């Protein structure tokens, strides 16, 4: 019997594994075709982060800091949110250019493990399992959450852990055994603290459910008294993750996720009767991933059995009431905006709005299985179940069509769902009526299983088929080409690179802005796109003219010599020609250019450099002020152009401007708050300006090099009325700027970066007091020494760093030390000792209770 159950457990893993493989085969996803999943966040975030994980593991880097993460930042928040899943180890067995295939296998294995975990839960909870149990385990592995959010594959681990956590809670409340619960709660928070937080809330609700279920006269005091073991073990398990949570919290508090929207704390309903439409197949696809109704689909037969649970006379009313309480507890978590916000760590999600629906699906499947076990005795599904289901689904689609037409993928899916309700009802009851004929019952059961598996597979296929798949061969070819180009600029000193890749050439169907290319290819970069982006660093870069789409993105789109100087960007990799830059290498379609203005990771500046305050949406002003502070000039570094003629159409949608330049140099154009998506055409002397990245607003454009007195014509054509009041056109005076660069080059510092996380270099100071400006973000975790003596850093130019130095030669060393990590580590060790003591106390207490008996 035990051997048979083991075989069933293996089958619960293999069935969803096989279903997903068939779907990849149908979709032609590599390695079963040439398509890959590099769309949306897959290509812009998850692939680069997985590449970063692989690089850290293979190179043996022992540091909490990385210059591949934007212009430099701690890796803790990023790692704790994206990279702590044990499944990521699979990436180590693939080459970098084949990592898109690794992602496919990671998703497949996670979905298969969800099925195995759910089956194990059902087996240990109800003991009675059979091949029919595969319907319930597979339903969870391919539930609506998986269909909608498997593209965010770092969230799938929690679905593997949830059934085990529920089992651990049952052991805790019924048997006072805490080990399983404590371990699984620890793993839930460790693998992804965001989803782990949701599971913590669920643990409280599920504990109340278990307490009421086993108590003859439940009270609040009784729950607190009986729940001592639960509270203590939960507290210890949660605190034991401090070595991850504290540095992650420190990092997240420096992002813009600390901003709260008061509207999200109003308890208004987020949806109405259209919610019921989500119990049919085909309710979500890739295009609806950011905005949709709750993804609660878990199979039509499952919902029939779930409804039947509340209709069966054999189930006590108390049990039905407490079960209903648990379902409503979770339902409220995504129905009311206030509760939804609390469940999402007090931040209403920006896209992927219902991230806790997997808990609802788990409970629905659990309850459906209990109804199935009651019905095995020969009782049939009540006719009310399919009638209520049909009515609710019909109402749901009616309201969906009236109020959420955009959410309707196809009304044919509704017809198929309605037909399946009655087909399942007939087949299930027919199976029940053939209990005296085992062979017939077996064939009907097999057909039911295959039908459910097909339904779940088709629903998952519907959710994936609209993905704009990438070209795997093109991606591999481009990756190798870029690696070769990057190898030509390798050096011992730390420097940054600006890399531009044409999305189509790189195998992306969508436009990929390359925010995280520095992480993907492993070099010190500038752009960044993560949920852990440091807010002050982002504001600093934006104030210097870099593109900020939202709170999670910063992009270096156009070329700026001042930015290249300040951030030490000596090299550009570009697919386009640039006659103003020194060409040093060409690899395929990529040309490597040298920026002569990048002189090192830092240079000496006057003490009043720390007094410069950057102004929002005034990049030219900010750059001018910084340059004037570094080296005073009687002439402006940025020379405004002289207007020759100006013409604007009557509807204010077309603007023509002709100017002459006042100096030799690169002409910069800034138009704050312009909605660039509405711009139909933007030309300079007839040449169309088309950025390599998607631009929404606020971008400092470099229009190219012009000699003094050159006539330049700009033409803007827009769908909307143009607001040109804040427009700036100015030339960076090349002669004046070159003089500054030459002067600063004599007092610049080159820093070297070791795998142990140390920066070091030498600098000579010839004045009594100066600041050593460093193009490193300000962070109090840096331990900085000059000639072996600790020295305090100063915040300059927004959120960059400088250190005060006196006259003489100085040996500078900088080591990044995460104090929160060390503090969290001590707390974790202390907690583990406390947990062992707590377990010993429970064992002694149990032994004494046995002796008393």
Summarize the structure.
With 853 residues, this protein is α+β, with helices and mostly antiparallel strands.
What is the share of helical residues?
40-55%
Number of distinct helices: 26
Average residue pLDDT: 91
List how many beta strands DSSP finds.
Answer: 27
The first-to-last residue Cα distance is 34 Å
What does this structure look like?
- With 853 residues, the chain is of the alpha+beta class.
- Among the domains are: 260-432, no CATH class; 638-738, Jelly Rolls (Sandwich), CATH 2.60.120; 743-818, Immunoglobulin-like, CATH 2.60.40.
- Strands 11, 21, 22, 23, 24, 25, 26 and 27 form an 8-stranded antiparallel beta sheet that branches. Strands 13-14-19-16-17 form a 5-stranded antiparallel beta sheet, with no helix packed on it. The chain has a 4-stranded mixed beta sheet with strand order 5-8-10-9, covered by helices on one side.
- A hairpin with a 3-residue loop joins strand 26 and strand 27.
- The chain is globular.
């Amino acid at each position: 019997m035990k051997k048979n159950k083991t075989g069933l457990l293996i089958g619960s893993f293999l069935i969803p594994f096989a279903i997903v493989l068939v779907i990849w085969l149908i979709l032609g996803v590599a390695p079963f075709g040439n398509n890959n999943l590099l769309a949306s966040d897959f290509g812009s975030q998850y692939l680069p982060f997985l590449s970063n994980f692989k690089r850290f593991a293979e190179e043996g880097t022992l540091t909490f800091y990385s210059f591949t993460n934007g212009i430099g930042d701690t890796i803790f928040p990023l790692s704790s949110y994206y990279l702590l899943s044990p499944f990521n180890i699979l990436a180590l067995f693939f080459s970098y250019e084949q990592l898109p295939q690794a992602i496919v296998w990671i998703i497949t294995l996670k979905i298969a493990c969800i099925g195995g975990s759910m089956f194990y839960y059902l087996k240990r909870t109800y003991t009675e399992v059979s091949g029919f149990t595969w319907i319930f385990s597979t339903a969870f592995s391919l539930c609506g959450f998986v269909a909608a959010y498997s593209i965010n594959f770092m969230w799938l681990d929690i679905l593997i852990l949830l059934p085990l956590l529920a089992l651990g809670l049952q052991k805790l409340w019924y048997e006072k055994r805490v080990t399983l619960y404590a371990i699984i709660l620890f793993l839930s928070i460790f693998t992804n603290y965001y989803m782990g937080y949701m599971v913590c809330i669920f643990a409280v609700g599920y504990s109340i459910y278990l307490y009421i279920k086993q108590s003859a006269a439940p009270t609040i005091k009784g729950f607190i008294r009986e729940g001592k073991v639960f509270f203590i073990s939960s507290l210890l398990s949660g605190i034991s993750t401090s070595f991850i949570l504290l540095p992650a919290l420190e990092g997240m508090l420096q992002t813009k996720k600390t901003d709260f929207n008061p509207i999200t704390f109003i308890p208004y309903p987020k949806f109405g009767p259209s919610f019921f439409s989500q119990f049919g197949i085909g309710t979500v696809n890739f295009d609806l991933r950011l905005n949709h109704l709750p993804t609660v689909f878990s199979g039509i037969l499952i919902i029939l059995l779930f409804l039947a649970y509340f209709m069966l006379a054999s189930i006590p009313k108390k049990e039905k009431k407490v079960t209903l309480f648990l379902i409503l507890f979770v339902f409220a978590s995504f129905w009311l905006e206030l509760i939804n916000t609390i469940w999402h760590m007090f931040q209403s999600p920006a896209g992927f709005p219902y991230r806790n629906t997997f808990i609802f699906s788990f409970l629905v499947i659990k309850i459906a299985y209990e109804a199935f076990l009651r019905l095995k005795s020969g009782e049939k599904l009540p006719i009310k179940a399919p009638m209520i289901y049909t009515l609710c689904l019909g109402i749901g689609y009616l309201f969906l069509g009236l109020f959420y037409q955009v959410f309707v993928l196809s009304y044919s899916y509704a017809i198929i769902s309605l037909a399946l309700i009655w087909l399942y009802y007939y087949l299930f009851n027919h199976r029940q009526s053939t209990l005296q004929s085992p062979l017939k019952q077996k064939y009907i059961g097999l057909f039911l299983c295959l039908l459910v598996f097909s339904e779940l597979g088709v629903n998952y296929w519907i959710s994936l088929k609209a993905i704009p798949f990438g070209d795997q061969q093109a991606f591999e070819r481009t990756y190798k080409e870029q690696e070769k180009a990057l190898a030509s600029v390798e050096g011992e000193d730390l420097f940054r690179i600006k890399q531009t890749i044409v999305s189509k050439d790189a195998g992306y169907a969508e436009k990929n802005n390359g925010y995280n290319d520095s992480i993907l290819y492993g070099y010190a970069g500038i752009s960044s796109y993560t949920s852990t982006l440091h807010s002050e660093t982002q504001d600093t870069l934006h104030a210097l003219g870099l593109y900020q789409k939202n709170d999670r993105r910063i992009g270096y789109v156009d070329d700026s010599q001042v930015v290249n100087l300040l951030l030490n960007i000596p090299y550009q990799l570009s697919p386009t020609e640039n006659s103003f830059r020194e060409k040093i290498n060409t690899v395929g379609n990529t040309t490597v250019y040298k920026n002569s203005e990048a002189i090192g990771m830092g240079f000496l500046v006057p003490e009043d450099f720390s007094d410069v305050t950057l102004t929002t949406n005034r990049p030219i002003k900010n750059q001018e002020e910084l340059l004037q502070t570094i080296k005073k000039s009687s002439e402006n570094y940025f020379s405004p152009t002289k207007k020759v003629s100006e013409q604007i159409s009557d509807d204010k949608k077309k603007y023509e401007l002709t100017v002459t330049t006042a100096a030799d140099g690169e002409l910069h154009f800034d138009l704050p708050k312009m909605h660039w998506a509405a711009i139909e055409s933007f030309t300079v002397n007839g040449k169309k300006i088309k950025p390599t990245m998607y631009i929404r607003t606020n971008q400092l454009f470099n229009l190219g090099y012009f000699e003094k007195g050159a006539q330049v014509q700009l033409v803007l054509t827009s769908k909307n009325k143009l607001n040109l009041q804040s427009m700036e056109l100015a030339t960076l005076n090349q002669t004046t700027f070159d003089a500054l660069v030459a002067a600063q080059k004599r007092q610049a510092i080159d820093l070297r970066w070791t795998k142990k996380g140390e920066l070091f270099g030498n600098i000579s100071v010839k004045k009594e007091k100066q600041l050593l400006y460093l193009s490193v973000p300000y962070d109090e975790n840096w331990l900085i020494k000059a000639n072996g003596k600790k020295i305090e850093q100063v915040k300059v130019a927004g959120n960059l760093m400088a250190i005060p130095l006196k006259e003489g030669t100085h040996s500078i060393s900088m080591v990044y030390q995460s104090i929160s990590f060390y503090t969290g580590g001590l707390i974790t060790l202390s907690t583990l000792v406390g947990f062992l003591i707590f377990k010993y106390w429970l064992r002694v207490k149990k032994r004494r209770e046995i002796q008393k008996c």
